[in-house]
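[job 4471] stage=fold_predict status=RUNNING
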Amino acid sequence: MKVINYILELAGFDNINDFLGTYHVLFPSILSISISFGATVGFLETYSGISLLLWVFMIGGTVADLLIGVYANLYYLKQEFDTTKFTRGLFKGFILFVIIFITNTFKMGIEDSAIKPEILKDPIIYITATIHYVFVTLIGLYILLSLAENLAKMQISVAVSLTKILKVKIKKIENLNENESDTTTN
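[job 4471] inference complete, writing structure tokens
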């Protein structure tokens, strides 16, 4: 402790409490919160393979989508609350997040496996990582599309334009699929 105090004095501090500042009394609480937060973030990043910032975006986007959807339907369109739609939205998000954890767990299992020769292991890691990030991208795009759909209900011009473009694209794809099925049956 003498060495620490000596270093702190060289840096211009009186003692450890001066170094920790006005809130030095709260240090144990702040430390326990930091450890809990670090452990949670470490768990999420290790077992999901996704950074905290991306998790914040995905969860924030999902919550914003749910809240905007509720607002658009209840207050803007004056519809009754539909628990089925709300529950379906929650369930869809839950399933996609579970898939992220599963695909990352597969990747981690392959990385730690004893597959020999190594030349066989690398393509398998690449394939599982690709599947993992396909689902990460899929979730992000679904969140953005769902937000656009809910904002279009409130007549936000950019969202209305985007949903119209997407509906035209969907119609073209559906028409192509119908034409293909008609030609195969004839």
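[job 4471] summary: The mean pLDDT is 82.
[job 4471] exit 0
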